[in-house]
Each structure stands twice: as structure tokens, then as C-alpha cells.
């Protein structure tokens, strides 16, 4: 639920209701609209109308539309990375030499985020990579802390691999994960004449894992 993360995305001055309720409605409205239509197609008026809020609410609570988008990105990216980090810790604790388990920790959260809210979050994050405002792009381009944890774990699990190779293969693996949007799957369904669909998420996870793990020779 978004409410559990409101402390991370709003000023302290609006921590109490009814302000917190407005913040949550703005958050969900903006996220859904961007996921559906893209960043450039969504105006502040669109967001406040969908949220049932005053037109000035975005500036009052967030400072600007771009800062609202940045708050959504930070909250959703942090949620995704927390899930990945938890699975990574579990995999390393079980067996630090299990490269396949480490890769599964990277792949599983975005693949198995199947609730309506989380699917919307993933669509927003996918849009953010290519369309997000400057604040979002700067974080994507410069904050690699969550990825370094996986690179370090893979280097430990695969000591015979030069670190350069670990980095390249992790980069290629991320490329695979970033091309799993609804549009990508629609094209795949067309190409395969309906043979390939992402409906069975557990099966999809296994297919992704087999493909990506093969790139690491495991």
C-alpha cells in the first residue's frame, strides 16, 4: 500500500489527514496516468482532476509536477530494490557460490509483481527510464548502489570470471529485463501467433532465469 510509504514522499507538514489522503490520491493518480499515457501527455490538471484535488495541490504538497513524478519514482524504485536486496541476502546466506540464486533475486521481483498496484508501478518505472524528467534520469544514470551489490555477489560466486566480464554480463541481463513491457509482450504474441504470452508469471520467471543464467555459464 502507498500509505505505508507516505513518510518518504511528502513534507512533514502534511503528515496528518486530510493532507496525507490528498498526497496519496495525487501519487496514485499521477502514477496511473503516466503508466497509461506517458510523461509528456499528462498535465497537472489531468492529475488533480483524477485525484479529486485542487489544481494547486501538486505545488502545495510536492513543489511541482516534476517533483511529484520524482517522488513516485523514488518510492517505487526503493520498493523494488528492497525486494531485490532481501532476496539477494537470502540467496547469499544459503550459498554464496550460487550464481543462479543471485540472478533469480535480480529477476524475481519485477517478474512476479502481479498485483494491480505493482503492475502499474512497473509500467511507471519502465516509462521513467526513457521519458522521465531530469531529476529521474540523473538518478538512473548515477545511482548504481543496488546494482553493485549484485555485481559483488556475482564476483564472489564466479571467481574465475574477470570483473569486467561480470559487469558486461550484468549489463546485458538488465537489458533483457528492461524489455519486458506490455508493448514488448504484445509484439511477442503477434510474432509467435499467440504461442508466447506472459500470463504464467512463474513460467516466465523460469524462462528469464534460464536465459540470463546461461549468459553467466550457470
Describe the protein in words.
This protein is an all-alpha fold and 218 residues long. It contains eleven helices and no strands. The N terminus is likely disordered.
What features would you highlight for this structure?
single chain, 218 residues, mainly alpha, Arc Repressor Mutant, subunit A, Tetracycline Repressor, domain 2, 2 domains, globular, disordered N terminus
CATH architecture verdict of the largest domain: Orthogonal Bundle
CATH topology of the largest domain: Tetracycline Repressor, domain 2
Over the alpha carbons, how many angstroms does the gyration radius reach? 19 Å
Tally of domains: 2
Going by CATH, the homologous superfamily of the largest domain would be Tetracycline Repressor, domain 2
Strands, total number: 0
Termini separation: 36 Å
Count of alpha and pi helical runs: 11
**Percentage of residues in DSSP E strands:** under 5%
Low-confidence stretches: 1-7, 9-18
User: Overall 3D geometry?
Assistant: globular
Order of helices and strands: HHHHHHHHHHH
The percentage helix is over 70%
Which whole number gives the mean pLDDT?
89
**CATH class term of the largest domain:** Mainly Alpha
Q: Which class best fits the helix and strand makeup? A: mainly alpha
